[in-house]
Amino acid sequence: MTETPLSGSVFVLVHGAWHSSAQWAPTQRALAALGAASVAVDLPGHGFDAPLPSGYLRPGQPGLSTERSPLAAVTMDDCAEAVLDTLRRSRRYRDVVLVSHSAGGGPASLAAERAPELVDRIVYVSAFVPGGRPRFFDYLGAPENATALGGGLTLGDPEALGAVRINPLSPDPGYVEELRRTHYHDTPADRFDRWRHALTPDLPWAVPTTPVTLTARRWGRLRRTYLRCADDRALAPAAQDLMVAEADRAFPADPFTVRTLPGSHSPFAARPDDLAAALVA
């Protein structure tokens, strides 16, 4: 039986490092209130089914800084395929808007490059854009990102672990405060612990380190928007601006539309209604 095409737009939401589809829920409720459909993706190694280091939930968290990640074999291709699978199932809608946050910009960009016919617009929410430099680490280490916080959050040797590992369940108040100040400084204080407890500890090493190559005839033909976060302490606004400027120079035919959101790196936690309104706009 042939499926009936659906009218309207659907937002396909791709989370960033250590997050999951669950963190999009408040934004999805706000989108629904505005009459917009949405579906959130779980990238491999994230979400409730994510495998965890064996000591992560045990008393004292033994081996957390040294145990190789169960996600070490996850590739950028695996992550892009998870996005593509959702895009294929969303194509019944009139318009498909692909939205990514932070490190999710790599898998989303690669998915759009491979199947631009599945995407009508791509939106980056303080997210990695590989238009000028192919790896997220190329921007995280740029001088424009020197004011970013969070340098003390990473555990162990990421290359040896096969993951960029953090400890959302840390018993150290100083560590927890750095996590809050970096990612959630404007999230209501009584909700921060709930948000951090929902994080997973490992980001597959491939996500920030694998080059993503874009082309003018595929990714470059898509309409694209950048929602920059004005008080972002995890990815500095100057680094966000750098990614947009370099992508526009590399793909000048259809430059980014740029809009600015107030607040932190995590608008889906701090102000989901505003984020939903910006997406619908």
From TrEMBL:
Protein name, entry field: Alpha/beta hydrolase fold protein
Domain AB hydrolase-1: 11-278
Species this protein is from: Streptantibioticus cattleyicolor (strain ATCC 35852 / DSM 46488 / JCM 4925 / NBRC 14057 / NRRL 8057)
Entry superkingdom: Bacteria
A Pfam cross-reference name: Abhydrolase_6
Keywords: Hydrolase, Plasmid
A GO molecular-function annotation: hydrolase activity
